[in-house]
């Protein structure tokens, strides 16, 4: 090359530039032009490199390899050579040679993510897993400075989802195997509401770069949203082995274990993290939740107390103490919570969640102190704040329930015929929260043939998927969609429910409880896909139940409960729907009236067991001795013998509950019977409520 004059070299570079333009589409043409240049200037490095690139694209990597090695010896600082040499070595299956080339490349160009990703793949193939993981992490770090990805991320965080998606889809057309862009596109699509499509993309990103911790973290959270708990745990286990140790990985695994019901394992993680670093109020709070669920009340109180000592404004920890129900917050606690509210009021960045949790906590503390007016005021403030943060349309919900009521009628069900999964395993306990359902669950799970699980979301997810087919326009209404399900479809859906819930079954007991209260909305669907399942409707006086629900801050899922009118309308929809289903399918549902259960527990337990076809066992009457984990708001109450002091507690607030009386009308007057026609008219005719 030393004999090539500058003007000639410039001409050859121009010619090579034209040849390079055809490299991807016409590598044969690019090779011919490069070889023509080399005949005029043997060893001319740009021509040699172009020839090797063309040879690889023509499937002749073996011919390119020795030429690249010769070319690289005098020019070790040219990244393009190592890039091409690495690709050739990979195509030839020589990962050790590829690793050498890629390590040289990444030292020279550490900001190029693709080089790191290629290195990670080669390292993984030769068994150097930890080194591969670190290479993936270096790739992600390099990608964090990519202007195109930064622009897309900014657009996403600013809410310009269409713009972010367009940018990322354009990039995907050029670089379809880019793990960072793929994960980011998955997040955009998740924010748009399409969890299934987001999951596909994030799984692809993790498969392409197994050491991409942020993608795997996001994948675990998406799997949790889809209730795919075993898969979530598998990925959380992998994440916990990352060479970049982070407490967040352990905390994520603990949250998966909690969802799986393995409270002991989750608690061990929290305790280990606190041994290493005790000043973590959030972890103390999480440990308190685990201990509460396991029935270790004194230890739970200690954990919650440690959390608020470290962070006095931590509203959820205060509420967790109050929510034990059996703990009385004293005057010093009330002073501390009021002080926390004052502190939050002066902090512009304060979390609204802390504020409403503190109001709920003060409501409970003042109620226990007998100051019912002040308690109601704090409950009202907390509910108003919470209601402003959630979306609940009572009209839309009533319309959905009316559609279900109109669908599952006796004439319609007669046309459907037999079908569904015949397994008798599930026992559904439905109704409203705070209706005594946890008490019923604890009684039944004390029987040797019944396993208690938790509030399982699976039936609601199946129902939601079917409703989406109506919402997407595939069917004109719910009735048409349900009518389209063949006997085989219904069997498949019932089997899907059993398969999805199997992960929560830890014993060989033949029956198990699903205590998701909201499943009353899907009682017709349950009957169609699981015809031998049992349904127990736990019902409590409408004023007592609605007021108790309104006082309770639920972690998630009960969006109707933060306004007295909303919760009363929800109760009214529930009573109307269940009455209609009782008429359509008599004796399908067994109803447990809470007040009767606390007045005559042996008699009600006998009737309950008879409905289930189970023989009496004394343990059902000493249910409070059952040490199973309980996750609901009534966890501590069901660890004591039945008490009656909550039955008429609402009467302390009767003058403040006008919205409940106005909406419930005859439903409250007739209880435990139901109005013959569910209406708010002045004439009330009550019809007996069937027990089964």
UniProtKB/TrEMBL annotation:
Membrane-traversing stretches: none
Record lineage: Bacteria, Pseudomonadati, Pseudomonadota, Alphaproteobacteria, Sphingomonadales
MF-aspect GO terms: protein-tyrosine sulfotransferase activity
Protein's organism: Sphingomonas ginsenosidimutans
Alphabetized UniProt keyword annotations: TPR repeat, Transferase
InterPro entries named among the record's database cross-references: P-loop_NTPase, TPR-like_helical_dom_sf, TPR_rpt, TPST-like
Keyword Zinc-finger belongs to the record: no
TPR repeat boundaries on the chain: 281-314
A Pfam family assignment: TPR_16
Protein name stated in the entry: Uncharacterized protein
